[in-house]
Each structure stands twice: as structure tokens, then as C-alpha cells.
Amino acid sequence: MTKLKIGNSVVDFERCQIINAANVTSVEPKVMEVLECLQQHRNQVVSQQRIFETVWGNAIFNPSSVQRSIAILRKFLEQNTKSPQFIITHPKRGYSLVLHDQECPNLSFSKAYILPILSSALIMLFSLGLWWTTSSESLPKVDFSLLKPITSSEASETNLVLSPVTDVVAFVRIGNNKQNHIWLKKLSTGEERQITQTATKYSKLGWSKDGSALAFLELQQNQEHLRYSTIDSYQLSASTPITLASFKEWQINSSQFQWSATGDIYFSTEGEEAVTQLKRISVSTQQIQTLKTFKGNEQLQSVALSPDDSQLALVFDVHQNKYRIDILTLESLNMIELHTLENNVHDISWHPDGQALLVSNRDKLKLIDMQGEVTNIDFDNFHYIRNAQYTNDGSEIMMELVSMDIDIMYSDLAAPNEYKLLVNTQSLDFLPIYSPDDSKFAFESHRNGFKQLFVYENGKERLIFSNPDNEDLFGVVWSPDGRQIITASKDALYVINEELAKYQEIKHEFGPFYLWESYQNENALLVSRKTDGGIKPAKFNLDTQELTLLLNSPSNFECVYMGLDQQDKLYVSDHNKIYGTQDGEELDVFWQSDSGNVEGFTLSDGYFSVKISHSEGFALIKVDPFSQLETPLLSQAYGDNMFLTNANKNADRFLFSRVEDIKQLVRLR
């Protein structure tokens, strides 16, 4: 059966059209499937749940989807929707389609139907011809000219996700004292509504494929919970959340939950020692399955599910400012490398046609097709981009723009929690590094879009390196005598005379490496370099310009931090141990943390100071290398936007970064 006569209308199931004397109306396929379900059981009562299971399969039952479809059908089929004669409601039981006419695949159409049908056919033929001539040249839209806000709130907003089937967006609005809620907004009308009852930290939002439910991560009592609510996109309302899973040992690090049509949610997690995993949870059974595990220098940080649910795009941080994008086929779990980009890749999403990926590449938007070809999407922007996604028809891009301000603060051991503001320029001022005599510090600043180096001394700051090519910089170190500051780009070193603000450029062909410290007893730098076996410590000789690897560690060992003592002995750490090296080859455990992960350390003659991260925040402790006695120096709690970034050699003066950001939701047309 392809056609059915209902009253004065003809239903064309194949073309998803309802035809009457006045016009031809196109109807959503799901709505037409609801009518088809009622037709298959005509003159019988069919429950809402049975209709939903027939049309939406294994999706989570949402009666509003059925109710909306019935309302649409009545609008076009009934003469009086308040007193329907064809689609009848049976309270608490369901609906029935009451027909006295037979189904009519070979209807004799009256003249009243000929003109609209003929017009529709001509339009279809014209569209088909247009598609035939242009489909081979069809490309996703990359030219945009207008940037408009999505909301008018002055609050910071984040975690933007667009419903796959309607014009409703979900997002998190950040309130006073970080008391956050999830909101829904209907773009066509501007109506918006808060759907959560409890103010807390929400993130990682993700719609179901039919737009009937929203998954999210909720932080309660320092524990993450994966939950979802069924959504009525027309009333902008949500059901009481249902908990799918809680996480203790693993932290979810992907930017969004990716929900398949069969009721599986995909996401990535990070555990101890930077092990990352690709996981899948079944909404119906609440069973979690680990699909892939990644160790060493491959850290999975974001996933995106293709429109047809057959593939996942994966983003890996492979260190040294490199981000690799792979495509994983879900049926076989085989992976192929698609492309590698520099600078931060925060997240990715698929174009609606499934043939390209939209990449949020720091402050740039890029489109990558399935052959790895990159197209830039240009628009005037100097903010960081998050959660960029095409609208369902590919005509617009929704995204989050982040305006960041990082200031440098100071405290000392006498009053460690009393902070003094030193550098505040409403831009990124970060990576402060004390000079050897602690009288000043160098820092990187991104002012007016330029990445430059400054020195702060006696309450004043001065520019010492203008970075004429505006390259990304990989670390800053002082020479042992404090007269020079050295920084690195991906293919050069810059040795800067601190007093004269003049520099010498040293080109090299070793690729990007990160600067850690200057050697005390030779003209060399301790650096880290990415190898096939992971991140390794190396020595760059400034006289001979040679690079030498220092540690032949096991392939599964990840070198996270490194440093030198006063005798230039090398120490390295993984996530909870610090190792000394014997002749630069063997690893000997020097000290182990029992309270958290090692986030950095500084060595001096009599002791070393270690920064430890734990579930509630950070702590700085002093450790006696002989007795292993630990002395707490200061502690920090999460949530106050303050991060310890540098301590002097004596561990009695501290530099902090205070991070503030404003997140705005926008649409690019």
C-alpha cells in the first residue's frame, strides 16, 4: 500500500505527503510512520508505547513524541481537531484510526487533486535534475558572513548541543558561585527554560538521535554521575533524571556524549597514569563496555559519532602540540589515521552528510573530508572555539566562543593563601618562571593576538621578545647566571639577552621539543622530545647544537615531568613516582607519592618540593631526600580558579595563575 484516502485527503506514504484540494503538504517520515502504524491496526486501539516501539525502535520511550505526531496528523487530516473523526483518542489506552473507506493504491483522482499533484511532480523532477547536475560538485557550506548570539543572557554559557531533529539547543548556564543549570532554548521562537532542579556542575551534554532525551554528566560530592532525562522539545520540559552510571576511578574527558539510534552512548575516559579508554554504555542494560585502551603518548580526548552510527572520529593528543584525528569503524573496531593538526583541538563534530568533520582548532574552524583534505572556515575571531557543530541542514554553525583572561598572582610561605595581583592585562599572561636569584620572573603573554615574552621586576613589566613571526612557544628557561632567557618554537631556539631585549636565533631540524631547565655545569638545555616510544628527556647542546636522548626507558613508561639537581643529575616522574637515573639509563625509584599524582617538582641542595594533585585540589610539599620526611607547605582546593604554576628553589615564594573566562553561545550564518 502506497496511498490511502482519509476523508477529503489522500495520504501518499511513499512520498510522505498529505494531499487535499488546497495543497500538498510534506510530512516528517516519523510522523508518517505513526500513521502507517495506526493504518496497520485500523479500527483498533494502539497504545502509545506500542506506537513508539514500532516507529522509534530501541530508543527510550517518550510519549511526547507520539503525542506530537498525532497532533500534526490531525492538523492536516481532521476538519475539526477538537472533535476528530478519524484519529480517536482513548484515554489511558491509546489511539485508533477509524476508516470506512478502503485503502486505495490505485485511486481515481478527481480534478481537484490533479493540479497540486502535477505541481508537486514537476517540482520533484526539477529538484532531481538540479541534484543530478550539481551533486558531483556539492560541498559543505564553508562561507559565512554573519555572527550572531544565540542567547541574550549576560551569564557565561557552555556545553552547547543542538537537537538532531528540532531547532532546540541545550546548554549549561553558569550562575553565581558556579551554581550551574541546564537550559533549553527554541531558536525559532527565542523561548528558553531551565530544566534542572538542583544547581551543581553539569557538563558533557548529548542528545539522543530522535531528540527525545538528553544525557549529561553531573558532579555530586566529588563524584561524576552519567544521567539522562527525557525531553519534551515543544514544552521545553524534562523528566526526573535517571542515573546510568557513576565513576570513581575514571574521569570522562570527551566534550560530549555521543548517543546512537540503538540506545548506546559513546564517550572517552582518563584514568591513572594517563591511560585513556573508549567506552560504550547501553542505556537499556546500563552495562559499560571498553572498546579500546590507549597508553603512553596517545591520549584520547574527544569522540564524535557519524550520522549513520557506523564510525567514530577520535581526537588524540600526541604531545608536542600535535593532535591526530582517526576514524574508527564500529563494526570491526579498525582505525585509520585521517589527519594531524597543530595547536589545540578541543573537539570535533560531523557534517550532516557524514562526509566531513568540523574541527574546533583553538581559535580556528576547519573542515576535514574523508580523504584528509583540510578547508579553512574563515571569520573574524580571536576567541577560543568550543563545541562547533553544523545545524541539521548544514546552513549554519553553532558554537561556543571563550574569552579567557589569565592573571599572575603571588604569595609566600608566610601567608600562602593571601594572594597579591602582579600582572593583569585582560589577556593571557601565564607560564611565570622565577629567575635564579628570585628577583624577577619571565612570562608569556598573548596581547592583541601576539605571543610575546615579558619580564616582571620591581613592580614593572617590560617586553623582551616580540616574537616577530608570532610562533607558538614551547617553554621558557633562564640561563644559570640569569642573564639570558631561552625559548623555543617548533624549529628554532631563541636565546634572549634579558637586559638588552635582543636575541640570537638557532635553527634546528629536530622538530618541536619542550624546554625544561638549563644545565648548571655546561652550556646545554634539558628538553623533552616526542619519539616512537613516547616522550623522552633529551639534552640540547647550545655549543654544538646536537640533541641527545638521555633515557632508554621502557616503551610503556610515560615521562611526565623532569628536572636537574645542582650537580645536573636527571630526575623524571611518571604519575606518582619520581625516579633518579644511573648513567642516564636505568630508573631507580627516588620517591613515591601516596596521596595523589605528581604535577611537578623542583630540586635544590637540601630537599625538593613536589606539587601533588588529589581529589580535592593541589598540595605542595617539601621532601627530605635522605629521610623521605614530608613537610606540607601549602594546599589549594578546586573551584577557586587559582593554580600554582611556579615556586622558587627554596619553595618559599609562589606564583599562581588566576583563570577567568566568559563563554558565549553564537551562530555563524
Task: Describe what is shown at a glance.
The chain has 669 residues and is mainly β.
Question: Can you lay out the helices and strands and say which pair or pack?
Answer:
Blueprint: E1 3-6, E2 9-12, E3 17-19, E4 24-26, H1 29-40, H2 48-56, H3 63-77, E5 87-90, E6 94-97, H4 111-134, E7 147-149, E8 156-162, E9 168-174, E10 180-186, E11 192-194, E12 201-207, E13 213-220, E14 223-232, E15 237-238, E16 242-247, E17 251-252, E18 258-259, E19 264-270, E20 276-282, E21 288-294, E22 299-305, E23 311-317, E24 322-329, E25 335-342, E26 345-350, E27 356-361, E28 364-369, E29 374-377, E30 384-390, E31 397-412, E32 415-423, E33 428-434, E34 440-447, E35 450-457, E36 460-465, E37 476-478, E38 484-488, E39 492-497, E40 502-507, E41 513-518, E42 524-531, E43 534-541, E44 547-549, E45 561-564, E46 570-573, E47 577-582, E48 586-592, E49 597-603, E50 608-614, E51 617-623, E52 630-637, E53 642-647, E54 653-668
Antiparallel strand pairs: 1-2, 2-3, 3-4, 5-6, 7-54, 8-9, 9-10, 10-11, 12-13, 13-14, 14-15, 14-16, 17-19, 18-19, 19-20, 20-21, 22-23, 23-24, 24-25, 26-27, 27-28, 28-29, 30-31, 31-32, 31-54, 33-34, 34-35, 35-36, 37-38, 38-39, 39-40, 41-42, 42-43, 43-44, 45-46, 46-47, 47-48, 49-50, 50-51, 51-52, ...
